[in-house]
Task: structure prediction
Amino acid sequence: MTEFVEYAPWYDLIYEDKDYVAEAAFVEQQLHRHGAGSGTLLDLGCGTGMHAIEFARRGWIVTGIDLSEKMIDRAKARLSHSLRVSFRQGDVCRAGGERDFDAVISLFHVASYQTSTSRLESMIATARAALKPGGILLFDYWYGEAVLAQGVQTRVKVIERPPLRLTRIAQPAHDEANALVEVKYTLFCEDMVLSTIKRVEETHLLRYWFPLEVDSSLRASGLDPVGHYAWLSNDKPDRHNWAAYSVARKLPLT
Result:
């Protein structure tokens, strides 16, 4: 595990503008639309727990799993005794003891961190093992047609929360032959009062996927594909939006 080791302490600040409440509401709506009950939910690649905790606030009994111990520590630190949510460190590609869940989610492109077909299928197999018959899996990923249409480019994000100024530079390198994007993140964490700067560097490797590949991996892992959609919509994925999501179902026992 190399991703999110140095990055973890700054993760929530970098993504403080992400609307976890709206995203959880949308995902819950899709889970209900496809037949999942509001019972138990497994969050694969839960990060610092923001989606998981929002689902718990909405009445779900939630388990979150993430490979990064630092991210899990941050998730546990924000737990409230009033919420039915738990977190554990673990590899989403290795099934644990979770069983009979109504729904499994994997959000914020965790599937794109699975950079091979075998890894993606292992993650889906973890979801299948955890789902009850008829249960729903929903996960998002980088959508291949959009990545190819738009190309990759360096992006800079600056966040000021006095006395802290955080500058993140994301420099991507595209390996089109293997559908991979290597992103070098450089963070400059400046204390404007003490006039000190900490530099953090981390490289993340991600893969973009196409619906036909996703369908093949779902079927190979024992799930029935339901559909593919542009993120936060019921429309088909399009080349204007890097984010897509897929829905699949564990077939009921016959």
User: Anything to note?
Assistant: The domain at 8-144+208-249 is CATH 3.40.50.150 (Rossmann fold). The chain has seven helices and eleven strands. The chain has a mean pLDDT of 95.
